[in-house]
Amino acid sequence: MGNNAVVVGGGIGGLAAAIGLRLVGWEVTVVERARTPDDAGAGISLHANGLRALDVLGVGAAVRAAARPQYTGGTRTPDGRLLARMDGAALERELGTPIVGIPRSGLHRLLRAALPPESLLIGAEVTSVDRSDASRVRLTAGDTALEADLVVAADGIGSRLRTQLFPGHPGPAYSGSTVLRAITKTPVDLRTDFELTWGRGAEFGHIAFADGRAEWHAVLNAPAGVRHPDPLGEVRRRFGGWHDPIPALLAATRTDAVLHHDINELVTPLPSYAVGRIALLGDAAHAMTPNLGQGACQALEDAATLAAALSGGAGVESALVRYDAERRPRSQSVARAARQAGRMGQQLSRPVAVALRNTALRLAPSRVTVRAVLRHADWTPPRLGRPRDGPGRAVVRSPQ
């Protein structure tokens, strides 16, 4: 088995895959089309499964040190009434860790710091893939020609490689919800580490960070493609009258800091995450709605599982068959659960349905909420085999 891999996409899943492959002895090149590292995005919550995957990859401790544990929080109504309490301490007792919150940019930097700079090919987009040779895959990225024994397609929800591999697949579909989000410019006095507030067809949430700043997101039922000349002004119009600390979060946000994206997902599951010597990973394989906070965690699981499959000494194609068998059922199940959570949560808009949901949440014991998180976060990571001759363990450097 050869030991040269190309990872297409330098996001969370692609970087994690590159780290894992290096740990088991592969030479890795990460091809990222952005000319500068794409740290766009606001914040992210990492559940126990994502943290366990990061531990396997050797970067879990660094991520925990930069993150803020989520011990307090819950779900509220727009007037501030508590519907369900999040018990981070109970999750820690069950799983060994609470959920943590970290800026996406910080997570990206920590993952990049675990890779040698020369392994990153920045500003080059993979435009073609040639699989005519059964033992190698040839890629064209700008003016660069690459050959690899393994290709990892981690090029996101709009994956060009997925389209080439599965030309009959319908691709991503609009979920019916759009999200505006930002990180505050300054620290905000928050009473909780994490919170969601559900109205009618609308959600507002925040994630507190270790430096006192916070990410907030506002999710709305809306037609696809709708944009606003003043995004922050629109959020203030829709959510400014909701309970504290929502007005304070918006007041601490720069006008030009708001990102606006429609939420798309792969509603039609892929028939496989492996085609020959190409593996699909993260959003390229199973883009899901964010309602369970599992998108990045599932990509991290993918990365750890892929590295473990390729460390066992089997041929590349056999290893990818194993990867597909282990990852596809679980990740597609989580994607279905996330879609259902959105339909029963933020997307509900009829007053009677909203009232019934709120009553059910208020009456449910706290252990029910804990069990709902455990259903997806309690994942046992694989063990990586001994590295073959090759680069060996990644070195975690201080991020620049």
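^ that was protein a. below is b, sequence first then the tokens
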Amino acid sequence: MSDWREASLNQVLSTVSRETVDNLYGFEELFRKWSKAINLSAPSTLDQLWERHIIDSAQLFDLAPGAKTWLDLGSGGGFPGVVIAILLKERQGGRIDLVESNGKKAAFLRTAIGKFAAPGVVHAARIDNVWNRIATPEIVTARALASLSELFALAGPWLKSGATGLFQKGRDYRREVAESRVDWAFDLVEHQSAVDRDSVILQISNLRPAGPRA
């Protein structure tokens, strides 16, 4: 019998298999187990782990319905990277690279990817050290990593080569967008978050340096 967690998944995903649902349940359990030993997320969010982290991550998937190659920067506790990896099991040829410089968190990510046989590769490195090691994906994600301007600097090699960014931002996102336009030009689509009405997902494409001002 389905429960409220599966119902919430069905609200943000067009289709989801029984295996995927079970894998996400298993990931939630694994995350809670590891969180007792290492700091994977703020303890105050554990009571709402499913909604605030798993559903918040899963909602990105249907924003790029044909995308098979993904890259998650600063993957931390696996949001959205591991969630996307589990969902990509249902897309033939799907793959995601996860970049995380913290060794303990990278070990958790590898454990999760292996346990659920998800098509992901974990890079325990700084983002600027993998610019030449990871081919340009279709989608780049980052969650609670840096300001938009800083994200453009970090993800620039891929975004300027044709990748699309899906970046989750809170209520102050308009200021970040305005500040980033000082140095960057880009195409922007705003998607309302399905989890928090004050949050958005910024879809960024065609990133390029801003032109000279008159």
